[in-house]
Design brief:
The protein is α+β, with helices and mostly antiparallel strands and about 325 residues long. The protein has helices at about 5-10, 70-80, 85-95, 110-115, 115-130, 140-145, 155-170, 175-215, 225-255, 265-295, 305-315, and strands spanning about 15, 30-35, 40-45, 50-55. The protein has 11 helices and 4 strands, in the order αββββαααααααααα.
Amino acid sequence: MPEIRDVDRDAVHTLPLATIPFKTAGLGKTRMIKNSHLQSVIEIFEDDSAGSGQLAVESLHQVYSNIEANDIKLLRSLAKLYSYDVFGLRVQLRNMGIPVNDHDHLKLSSSKQKELAEYMKHFTERLIMEIYGSDDESVKDYGDVLALFRHPDVNLAREKLRIMSQRLGIDIAGVPKFLEDYGDIYLSVAYFRQCMDSVQPAIDDFESSVEEIINHPQLKQNANLVAVSTRLNDKIQNLNKVAHKRFAVFSQSTDDMWDGITAEKFSGFKELVEANHTAIGGILCTLNVKMGAWMAKFPNKDSGGPVKRADFILTDMKQGL
């Protein structure tokens, strides 16, 4: 089975096809991506010198002459998904009845999880503070909580776990599953939050560029350019606002959950977040792909002038939006 690269596993717009048990030999070495036009295509190769070799699903027979009909059918279904982040894929693949080669493929890489530690800190500190308070020197971070299961002092560990089970209203035997679910659901919130934060500079730059274009002495005479630029900026701003509102709901729901925390309240919060995985994944996939293309073309404010930016808006940015 081909190895899945961390960069592919962690991306919101990339699906390593090694995740899915295809019958056609060699297909697992490729990946499905959302390209800059938001089309789902199979990327046969990609490197800095040769660029990206992309094929639509219906054109795969050009490379795989004996591709299985069932594989084509499966790829068509995958191409309809709005994002390929691991959290949304868990829900969507399960709903579609599509198996996976290894469920670990639907987890973030260890390097990405470490990268998200700062985002996770707020949520894990809240858990520790609510359960143990600020005076317990033996439990200071989430690692200390997880370490209770292998603590050499069995009596101390049992007492700490008893406190947690009592506070949550669950049996001690249910604590490990609670911690696993708690860590995973907030990891998804942290992941999507990082995705959203990462595109804010590009969104601001795009908005400034559109403002410059529609006020440019010559460019503002092009009614089509002004209309397209304004429409795209409105679309991007609206998607961004929707994403921010989702996180505001998550934040408020977290506060409500900890107001008399129980396992049932956490379960309700978990269901809320999971129900939003597909929608927020689709929004952030769109923003990451489009803003990624914008920043790749214009990496700083001095890259290209209003004319070049206007041309890119008409030829590339409007595609798929």
